[in-house]
Structure formats: C-alpha cells, structure tokens
Amino acid sequence: MSDPILTIxxxxxxxxxxLPITINELTRLxxxxxxxxxxxxxxxxxxxxxxxxxxxxxxxxxxxxxxxRVKGLKLSTNVGHQQALLAGLFSAKEHSDCIVSxxxxxxxxxxxxxxxxxxxxxxFEVVLGVRNERKTDTFFKKxxxxxxxxxxxxxxxxxxxxxxxxxxxxxxAVEKLENFGEINLFLRGIVPLIGFNTTHVYYxxxxxxxxxxxxxxxxxxxxxxxxxxxxxVTPIRFVSLVGFVSFLVSxxxxxxxxxxxxxxxxxxxxxxxxxxxxxxxxxxxxxIGFIGEYIGKIYKETKRxxxxxxxxxxxxxAYPVLSDENDESILRLEQANMVGQE
Length: 342
Ligand code: UDP
Ligand code: MG
Prior knowledge:
Spore Coat Polysaccharide Biosynthesis Protein SpsA, Chain A; 11 helices; Glycosyltransferase involved in cell wall bisynthesis; eight-stranded mixed beta sheet; binds uridine-5'-diphosphate; about 50% helix; transferase; binds magnesium ion; Glyco_trans_2-like
C-alpha cells in the first residue's frame, strides 16, 4: 500500500486563542509522520469553523495562504460540535484515505495519532482514542462525565468508556456514516454501529492549551439528554413502569380507604388525598416530559433539515491563486482576507 493520505479534522468554535498553537503542533506532527513514511505528503489538516464570532476563520484562512497543509471549511452558522465534526468528516473523505478527528484545544494527546496511523496500516478501519485518566479535568467535570458514561451504559447505549471524539476512521467507514440519516447524530454511539475492524489506543488527556471550555453545564446536560434519547427507549419504558406501579399502589390504597369507610372511620383523608394529588401530578408531568422529548426528536427528524450549511470550503478552491470560475466565493474569500488583515 502506498502511504495513505491523512486528513485531521478539527472543529473550532471561538478558538482564536488556541488555534495558532494547534496549527503549529499539527503541522509539525504531519511533517514528522510524512518523514517517517507513515502518511502521504498530500495529508492535510481541515479546520471547521462552526460559526465562530471571533477571528477563528481569519486565522484559518490566513494560515492556509502560506501553509499548504491547512484547509478550512466555514459553516454559515453555529451548529454544535457533533454536526461541525460531521461536516468536516464528509468534506475530508473526498480527499483522504483515513481521517482523524480531534478537538481544537489539543486536550487529546496528538502523539496518539501516530499510533492511530500504525493501526490503520495494520488493517484497522476504526481506531478509538481512549483516555487513561482524567487527572487534569476539574473534579466536577470528571464526575459528571463518568456519571454520564455509566448512565448511558445502563440505558443500553453502546459507547466506549472514556472515548470522546478523538478517533481515526477509514474513508470507507466515513462513507458508511453518511447512511445514518438522522439529524440528532451522536457520533460516539453511531461509530460502534458501523462495525468494521475496530481497535483502541490509550492516551493521557491534558488540560486545554488556551481559551475556555465551549461546553458549559447547560450544553453538557443537553448533550447527555440527546445522547440518551437518540439511542434508547429506556426512559419511556421507565415512565410506563412508574405509571404501572403507581396504579397498583393506588388500587391498594383504594381498597384500604373503602375498608375504612365500612368500618366507620371516614374522617381521615385530607393528608393522603393532597399528597397523592401532588404525587400523581408530578409523575404525570415527568411522563409527559419524557414523551415530549421523543416527540421533539421525531419532529426534528421529520423536517429533514440540512445538518449544516457550508459557506466556504478552501479545499475546493484553487487558492491563494484564485481561479475565476466562482466569482461569488472569490469575493467572499477576498472579504475574509481583508478582515484578517485589519
Ligand atoms: N465546538 C464546536 N462547536 C460548538 C462547541 C464546541 O465546534 O458549538 C468545538 C470546540 O471548538 C472544540 C470541541 O468542539 O474543538 C470541544 O469543545 P471543548 O474543548 O470546549 O469541550 P470540552 O473539552 O470542554 O468538553
Ligand atoms: Mg476540550
């Protein structure tokens, strides 16, 4: 096999602080891998700008001008980490034999990528990066994340413990990913479903190099809820179970109350009445909430909206020498260029 073309896909949302470092580190890594004859000289890094509000795109675009390895994909608006990553994977697969995805903050050890590639040479099509430890995460993040994995497992979602979105996939695996048409895509859960020859590589997770986490608690919670409700109907079953149990309990209580009535003891009641009203009301609300969650999912899926919209793709443009085939994109590129030079 000739040396495979590798593309490293990096989703970026407001990452201006860390991007210059990331670009340097990844470029250096590609050069090394190339010298070790592990990858083709045509290997690239594809930065996906997920609708950033800061100078993220300018940095990507500018460095693409003098670094042939740097390519950029600008999404028209913020669509979230998973969808941005997907946009990158689908674009990258057109130009690569294998694709590695990694976060912009380089918390995942880029040295593991060398191991990924070696595994790819050994014939593995999916290589999952798995964290050894979580020493550098805050106490809160560590425990919420661990709880999340455990909960997912309990709910019957097949995900690999401590594997995030740091992985290598062959071109063929990414192509298969396209067949999963769902909008609520939770990559960690989907990738195991693709099957193919899969293996793990262990690494240590570091601290964010610069900038702040783009996953505040609110996003984390919605991510967890999405992950569960996209894969599992356990919550709905649980709700039915609770409903059934409370029905049984109310039957027993009903019998008891009737008994009280016939024995002449009817003055009791207000306390049990008011508590059961609250109890049942609460249960019903929970049930409706869960059902609503799924209906919301169905609603989103049925609309079949595009997952993301690409604004600019520097892969497809002959630049910095701009061709005259596509006037509009050239105009946009020039504008982006000017912003960058301010
Ligand atoms: N990210 C993104 N879109 C978003 C939020 C995050 O593309 O709406 C990217 C972000 O730039 C980073 C990756 O997703 O490359 C993971 O985010 P972050 O490192 O902030 O998450 P954490 O490691 O704290 O869970
Ligand atoms: Mg991070």
